[in-house]
Amino acid sequence: MSQPADIPIPPDLGRRYGGSSPGRDWLSSLPRLVRHCLEQWQLELDLAPGALPWNGHGAIVVPVRRRTDAVSKVTVGGAAGGIAAVLKVAYPHDEALVEPHALALWNGHGAVRLLAHDADAGALLLERLAADRSLQDVPMDEAVPVWGALVRQLSLAPDGRPEWREFNHVAARAEQWSDELPESWDRLGRPFPRWLLEAALEVCQTRGAVGRRSGKDVLVHTDLHYLNILARPGRDERQGDGGEPGDGWAAIDPQPMIGEAEFAVAPLLWNRIRELPRADPQRGLLERCKDFSMAAGLDADVALQWSLAREVENALWYAAKPRHEGDLARSLWVASTLAGRTLPGLPAPHELPAPGEAGG
Hints:
The protein is an alpha+beta fold. The chain has helices spanning 11-17, 21-40, 94-106, 140-154, 170-187, 194-213, 266-270, 281-295, 300-319, 325-338; strands at 43-45, 54-55, 59-66, 84-90, 114-118, 123-127, 130-134, 218-220, 229-231, 249-251, 257-259. The protein has two domains: 4-128, Phosphorylase Kinase, domain 1; 133-351, Aminoglycoside 3'-phosphotransferase, Chain: A, domain 2 (Alpha-Beta Complex), CATH 3.90.1200. The chain contains ten helices and eleven strands. Strands 1, 2, 3, 4, 5 and 6 form a six-stranded antiparallel sheet that branches. α6 packs across α9 (300-319). The protein is globular and about 60 Å long.
């Protein structure tokens, strides 16, 4: 087994966080944080010589195993000794602070199982999923029922447990957008027509008010795109052990909020966009929204509304960033298509970059 100090930093994490003093401080702290977690949870690294740890946008994920000769209160994977897990250490940010609370509530049902966490270190000990098998590579007609089944499992209604106090509300985010979107649109030189901004504001005003009184509030995984759904090793990925489509899969990186479950549909529309039919991509996008909504038992019209607002907010974020012209075009295509008036002059969907491909 490698020693903690030998853990290499994945290059894209180094590029992403090496440009600022706080980022460099976090990168330099990773060997110490990993060593601390290995010691307190009695773990060993499970990295092959020369292999890089996994990583997401804001965290390093290190494969580990529970020491077979150790006695600990941590039980990994339901058995003591030598069981595979992962150690996730996140850059300090708001989503990382609330992630363990959501995972604790889900308790492995529809989401990766939380085994232990250390808030001071920003570290989670999680069940190990198949990092190389995500819903990204599953045919769309198979991905739809899996996603729908997971959403049904994840959509917990609030109860008296203390974790619920940690989450922000989707409707409150919409109220915030009602103030922020017009200001950003004007400050950024009005990067798209006013009617599209107004369409998003209408969603914010209606869902921001009605959503609070609807009685439909649940725990929402707000970033439930295809790459954030991984296979559970040893499970039948199509039906799972219990015969349900989602049983062989688990969600990761939840960015949790409370609100209408329809808020979760949007990332499915701005990912895998090149797979829309070339003959009529606009219709294909609307059908995708409807298909995923129906699979999860959601209201497709409400999902469309939230997706439109989220993509307008994304478009303004991209408009403020250099080298994100492709991402801006993608968000504008999706948002305007959902609004029923696809903007002219944009690239065709199959020419648009996938999230993460464009920009710096």
